[in-house]
Design brief:
single chain, about 400 residues, alpha+beta, Spore Coat Polysaccharide Biosynthesis Protein SpsA, Chain A, 13 helices, 21 strands, globular
């Protein structure tokens, strides 16, 4: 973009404040800032000023899935089909590790968090250990694609290398970076983090596929038919679970979601439902009181709480790749430069960031198998330091599962 075009673009969108320190910048900084501005998704500019959530919901109904009993009855068949697929190189695993872990309050990548007590035990180590159990049994490795962000890429790579990838063969590991999105203040004005740098943050976990597809990494593994996508922060996460894969393949559905039965009607988890006849994840606060409490013979009608462990059919992903998913608006404390060029680290939320979420991809996939798992065995999220979904609660659950801390 020429200087003239840059100014014109910013004038059109009422964002000329970004050039406040332009004359103080060196040539390289100017090029870099111009590139960041060119990369902004100007199509979302209307949303910045009126940031109501665009994820409006349709008609919600319950969805049926495979229950724990059904899985127990069919485990052998599910397992066999899944293990075959793994042996044939049809499954890849995608570790979403681009988040900032602000609630955990550590600047390091979340996977590098040491959850051990008497010995070091890192979150990445727990996850890779779980994956190795599957690949050892199958006698075949699953390619592991690790999504990082601009903020934690170098540190994540260095950490895993220093720990020899916790025993996973590096030939089967690939890293890719997710995109960043700019933050705005409450008047919809883009903020600067440095004089030559926009205030950017990772664009949410919904951008994983577009970022991965762009790298061409997937083409290195031509046999891939399924991707198992999961969060970094569940230390009991079962990755590449053959029975889950087998059940999803046999169901003929385009995606699968591991779910736990909600502990109580108002538990703060997203719930897998049907929305206008298509599978969709509805946030807990989007369910009416009546829906949250509705029951059938097996318990809560809307009971399938998602735990961020999904299977996606690769061909279908290609098909939906260009489609837009809803943008969610998150209020956030955004460090930024004030008018004098001084860095402000706000104590209170002062702006919005914009994220897309992986859960919104389920609807685009067209069909989804809810696959129930035992909460105490597979769900120990580490979101906070203490209290609910914390380091403390995850430690208790690790101990319950026989892990020495
Ligand atoms: P969370 O929604 O818990 O976000 O991420 P977070 O950034 O880790 O933590 P907070 O909210 O700042 O405390 C759920 C999963 O999605 C990944 C996270 O790494 C985690 O595995 N994620 C989230 C990304 O990969 N990129 C993002 O932009 C956001």
């Amino acid at each position: 973009m020429t200087d003239e075009k840059l100014k014109q673009c910013l004038q059109e969108h009422g964002q000329t404040q970004l050039l406040r320190f332009w004359d103080e910048l060196g040539d390289e900084e100017k090029v870099s800032l111009a590139r960041q501005i060119a990369d902004v998704d100007w199509g979302t500019v209307a949303l910045w000023k009126h940031p109501e959530d665009l994820s409006g919901k349709g008609k919600i109904e319950p969805i049926s899935g495979v229950s724990l009993d059904e899985i127990a009855r069919n485990r052998k068949v599910f397992q066999k089909v899944g293990e075959e697929a793994i042996k044939e190189g049809k499954l890849g695993a995608v570790l979403l590790a681009g988040g900032q872990g602000t609630r955990l309050g550590s600047d390091a990548p979340k996977g590098a968090y040491n959850i051990g007590i008497t010995r070091p035990l890192y979150i990445f180590e727990c996850l890779i250990g779980n994956l190795l159990e599957v690949t050892d049994r199958a006698g075949a490795y699953v390619p592991l694609f690790i999504m990082t962000s601009e903020k934690n890429d170098a540190e994540t790579k260095a950490f895993l290398k220093a720990h020899a990838y916790f025993g996973y063969p590096s030939d089967f590991i690939r890293f890719f970076k997710q995109d960043m999105a700019p933050a705005v203040d409450f008047d919809g004005k883009l903020l600067l983090e440095e004089k030559g740098r926009l205030a950017l943050s990772p664009n949410g976990n919904g951008g994983w596929y577009s970022s991965l597809a762009r790298t061409k990494i997937l083409q290195e593994f031509p046999a891939l038919e399924w991707l198992n996508v999961f969060a970094v922060d569940n230390v009991l996460q079962r990755i590449a679970d053959p029975a889950f894969l087998g059940a999803t393949i046999l169901s003929g559905k385009m995606s699968g979601a591991k779910v736990v039965s909600k502990a109580e009607p108002h538990e703060k988890v997203g719930v897998l439902c049907l929305e206008d006849g298509l599978p969709a994840v509805v946030e807990y606060y989007e369910l009416s009181e009546e829906m949250a409490n509705a029951r059938d013979a097996s318990g809560l009608l809307y009971r399938h709480g998602v735990i961020l462990n999904y299977l996606f059919q690769a061909k279908k992903l290609e098909e939906i790749a260009g489609k837009r998913i809803p943008v969610h608006v998150v209020k956030k404390k955004v460090p930024h430069l004030d008018e004098k060029g001084e860095l402000v680290r706000p104590e209170e939320v002062n702006g919005y960031k914009f994220e897309t979420l992986i859960l919104d991809m389920i609807k685009l996939m067209g069909s989804c198998l809810p696959y129930e798992v035992v909460r105490e065995r597979e769900f120990a999220p580490v979101k906070n330091r203490t209290g609910v979904d914390s380091v403390d609660s995850a430690r208790e659950l690790l101990k319950y599962n026989g892990v020495k801390l």
